[in-house]
Amino acid sequence: MANDVTNETFKPVQLALPPTVQPEEDEINLRELYELLRSGRWTILAFVLAAVVAGALYCVLVPPTYEADGLVQVEETSNSSGSMSSLSQISSLLLGSPVQTEAEIQILQSRLVLDQVIQSLNLEIEAHPKYFPIIGSAIARFNDDLDHPAAAPWGLRRWAWGGEKITVTRFEVPDQWLDERFTLVATPTGFELNDPDGDEVLTGTVGQAAQSKDGKTQIFVQQLVAAPGTRFAVIRHAHQTVLTRLLDALSVAEQGKQSGVIQLTYRDRDPERVTAIIDNIENAYLKQNVERQSENAKQSLDFLNKQLPDLKAKLDADQARLTTYQSQHGAPDVASQTQMILQQSVDLETQRLQLIQQRDQALQRFTPQHPVVQALNQQIGSVEEAEDKLKQRVSALPDTQQEILGLLRDVEVDTQLYTAMLNSIQELQVARAGTIGNVRIVDYALKPLEPSSPKVPLVLALALVLGGFLGVAYVFVQRALLRGIDDPALIERQFGLSVLVSIPYVTEQRKLARAVARGEHGSHVLAMVDSDSQAIEALRSLRTSLHFAMLEAPNNIILFTGPAPDIGKSFVAANFGAVLALAGKRVAVVDADLRKGHLYKYFDLKSKPGVSDYIVGDVTSQELFQPTGVDGLDFIARGNSPPNPAELLMHERLDELLKELSGRYDYVLLDSPPLLAVSDAAIVARLAGTTLLVLKSAEHPLREIEEALKRLTNTGVRPRGVILNQVGARVGAYGYGNYGYTYYSYGR
Asked: If DSSP codes are grouped into helix, strand and coil, which group holds residue 122?
């Protein structure tokens, strides 16, 4: 009896890892990594394609951004005015050369400049068509070249589809509606304006000012080109909002180190507006710089004009005293020594008064504690010390010479100061009239021909890299999350069972499985559809391995079972039977799953009569056989589903049927239910001479396989080996090339 033989050859299943075999977990196996990536190549490719498609959609759907730039140069400040030159020289000596570039960069980004740009370009008013969500703006960009509004598809007239134009030069709203979106609807006679709540505010005509009944909302639409019903968004922005947006999109930086050349870059979705903003910023900056230089000259001129009358009055008074002295005492006789002292005294006094004048002028710009003012005070003190020493020499002269020296000195000093002041006033008047500032525009902005973003090649390249990275990461994550075993070596070490064959999961097998699920007619046996498939080649190798494994078997009955459903037992039984039959053997394939057996679908045959009908005595054995279309291969279906399949399988008529089949055929293949779900497989296994455990790659954890083997052990059955099925089907599992042979097929 089969049962006796099986019990004699039974050995305890080794579930513990042998101490002599230690897996090298820390060693990086490049072959395993290669096979892992190879098994997930389609998943990685799917991620790459998805990322590239997403990148392409991004490039198409995202509105393009344009960029324009301009250059301005900041020159060192120079002034031809004598007094101003002296003041600048003193400031330079004390503070070093002024770093003007950083200050000018801040001025370029200040409200002083940007407010003029906002007012000049009317940036506080925004008006644009409303596009269909997501794809509308992309479609409109393709239709922008039209000289008329594009026709609305599918009757969606409320959206703009390209060619629409609107220009709003005036739009006033109450403060609570600032930065809120109004809706302007084109009508056959003009337009209608609705507030953010959807209520009508006013109606108007293009080219004429319109206002609401309360007069708080006013609008002037200069241009409107659109089909009736088309909607536009009109927004009156707060000044702070526009200023913030300008600063966010504006970039100002010095080109090179201490070059004095500043580059302005602006980004916007409108190529014409981006150019206009750069040009207006440069013009406004140049204008304020000229005005600032002119204002400096005006301040100096006003100061000198105030000092000139006092100096003229002092000169007249000193001249009168000298004239009076001459009329009373005659023309003075000045000795040569007195003449030399007079010249020195005149020079020192002139220098002192000029320094005092410069200090007074500096006090208009600096505090008394400023280094420039302190330096002037020190110079004035030095000159006064020199004058004190000269006075000691003067005191040694006769009284008449001292008096004459004082009068002549006062007149000479006043004359020189008055002449110098007149020259300075003339120079400042000329400078004010011809002020050009200390900055110049090097380059105005050019209208961009191509958008600066999105950069299509860069986006697609990044999408390609990102897709590949995500795909590889997904494969590794799936590998880490796999709960099942996909390594044949681990199965052999852990349970002491030989893995007879690893069957790869091929594309054609997936197609046939879907056809079976849909109930399509025709043969769904892979060995009959594609005999050169790698999976069929693996089954041919199983035929060879099984020949030696069955040498000690009591009969030629082979049972295919497994721990769980949907692991491919029926696929293995049907295709292995076809492989044996095509090799010239007489084979019977029996569906022993009386509960949910679906083996008949592979051969496109009937599910009854079958095994259950024979056991209950409704049919004879001759009525069970169904030809499969393959010579030497017959099929026996499961029959009607009984209410008590386990008890039915224990009936002696099943043993009689299998003995009859064993005598008529070279091989009898049994497809059984899963071991852990029901006890049917363990019952049938007692009658089979060879039991093969079918495992799905990466599907079963160790504990599940261990429990399945215990079920068989409890009935006295030891499997002859393991069939690892659907290798490479799970993402993250190692591919077939890591475990089996590489098969080659010859073209015909």
From this structure: coil
